[in-house]
Design brief:
The protein is built from 31 helices and no strands. By secondary structure, the protein is an all-alpha fold. Among the domains are: 73 residues, no CATH class; 98 residues. The structure holds one DNA strand of 10 nucleotides. It comes from Rotaria sordida.
Amino acid sequence: MLKKLLDHRLIFLTSGIKRSVIIPSDFDLCTQMKLLNDKKKFKEALELFDKYKENNNKTLSSYTITQALKASARIRDLQRGSTIHQFISSDMKDNSYILVSLIHLYMQCSEVTRAQSLFDTASEKSLHTYGAMMKGYIKNHMTNKAIDLFKEIKNPDEVIIIILCNAGAQLGTNEALSLIKKVSSQMPKHFYSNLRLLTSLLDVLMQCGDVKHAQALFDTSTTKILSMYGAMMKGYIKNNMATKAIDLFKEIKDPDEIVINLLFTACAELGTSEALNLTKIVSSQMPKHFYSNLRLLTSLLDALIQCGNVTHAEALFNRSIKKISPLYGVMMKGYNTNNMANKSIDLFNEIENPDDVNFIMLFNACAQLGTHEALNLIKKVLSQIPKHFYSNFHLLTSQLDALIKCGDFSTAEILLSKMKKSVISYGNLMSGYLKTDNPEKVLDLFDRMKNDNIEPDFIIYLCLIKALSHIGDYSLSQLTVQQIPNSFLLNDRIQNTLIDMWVSSN
DNA sequence: ATAGGGTTAG
């Protein structure tokens, strides 16, 4: 695009002063906005845009509007983006650059319907338009829609295939894997020399569990860029092969922040003393400014804690000038796993804007204590949780767990009735009733589960048999056990628990 | 204009 602009400028420079007063000012605006956007200074780019609009009544070029839309999309400023949309002249609305930018804007702001209607009414649909729609669907977790759209495309280019790989990686299913394999075998061979495409391909193969295929592809590539190592390491971690991820890391000459981050994740996964040594060596050898990357620091602390060195993690945490919620979260997790729930709670009280994970960690700490004070804290915190966190299933589950562990079954029951029903939450409440010697409640919950059409799992049946064992009613036991599928009756632990039950009811 | 690999969670 810059080349096009430069061409414009050359024309205007040679065509007299009069034009150079009007046009180059918009040109300058556009170049400056692009520079700011490239530096991720989106707000500044938009301020410049506003200032220019105030002082000039002239129509803006499509290049400038594209930059303004891009900045609005990146900061997810729907209000501003819509205003610009209204401001666009009708003949410019057919411009394909503007169309793509508008779709991108609405998709980034989760306004899928508005993006869809722009797409549907567009007179011409370019590959870029399809690409923006597909990317938007992925962003809004409507992955299958992205794949459906892909199937409409006759000659996908490299970018479209990259986006398709992203969709496949998000799904991680066998269906996604076979689609990717089919598409990659049919695409022009020279696409394989596009290393960004190759990275996405490695990523999707790994996320769908085809480690061997990814390895073969990685090994045959003569040129290997860092992102390819990153995709492989991420894939090994995902497929529980952390050691392989570490081995691959050792082959990298100049690791960047991303692959080091992946290394720390792998080390955290292993949690061995070798992993601890490696974490210490790499963190001491990496450039000092990496420590101010808070995402990287979070992984580093996690690795140290999981490998058992809480003291070192604490020291680094205290040394960090800037502290973000995830950094508190990882420390709280560390205290929780080391049975230091009180320290975890103290840390929570220092957080200015707790995120969802912070709340989860607090609930875990309260569950660990199981005291009356802990219950009071849970109730105090409940009123502080922002409403949008209530869609986070993890948060509700750990909240339920904390209430049960602190013995507040009535509040737990209310929460369960409001939650999306699941085996996990039922199992949690059942084992709570079992521990507090309420076997009748366990049977009651089992019936409610059946009414909710939830498929019981191993844990549920185990709780059920133990509850029957507590009650000790032979005919009730016989009647209930008939409902357990044979596949579960073959399990050793189920069989042992059953034996205990028959003994106690005779 | 749409394009790659990264943190904490039941």
